[in-house]
Write a structure and sequence with these properties.
Elements: H1 2-11, H2 15-27, H3 33-41, H4 48-61
Length: 65
């Protein structure tokens, strides 16, 4: 299931769908290194909803220091 969500987060045409998938993967605790790299790449996405979802999810998944 997480793999399907990750594929949708990367490839769906709708920014809202992609952002929702990103948030859900964060809720599920998806710590796959490829996903974490993808979240970092999303900081340059043209869609604000994607940038916001990625930033919040990345902050949620990274351990507090």
């Amino acid at each position: 299931m997480k793999g399907i969500l990750f594929a949708a987060a990367k490839h769906d045409a709708s920014p809202a769908v992609r952002a929702t998938c990103i948030r859900e993967l964060g809720t599920l605790g998806y710590f796959d290194p490829t996903f974490l790299r993808y979240l970092t790449e999303c900081s340059a996405d043209e869609s604000g909803i994607i940038r916001d979802a990625a930033a919040k999810t990345l902050a949620k998944l990274r351990p507090a220091r």
